[in-house]
Amino acid sequence: MSGTSIRWDGLGDLYSELGVASREAQKYTEDAMKSTLAKAQQKSKGLARVDTGFMQNNINTKVLESNQDRVVGEIRSEAEYSSYNEFGTYKMSAKPFIRPSVAASTPWFYNSVKQALKKAGKFS
Asked: Among residues 46, 78, 80, 48, which one has the least CA distance to residue 62?
């Protein structure tokens, strides 16, 4: 299996700084994490090698933790040979599909949180 966790700490400080109620802001950040994970999953499926389609069809996401100070999400491929594809072997070149999708989706997370806070009238 191959997977990556996306973690954002210090949310409590951010909420305080912006004067946003933590419960409301926590929902915004958790929703942003869910949409970010969905984007990363879609991109990973597009980047994954496809032979039988098993690896591509078994890329899963979930929010592992969401509280007033952090939100943690995970994207992983359940195929046991995923890490060989992600990192390569001495016989096979790497074709990363998880790490690039996380890197490409991270700005989406920040923008999603920013937009949600703008809508709430708390951030300009």
From this structure: 78
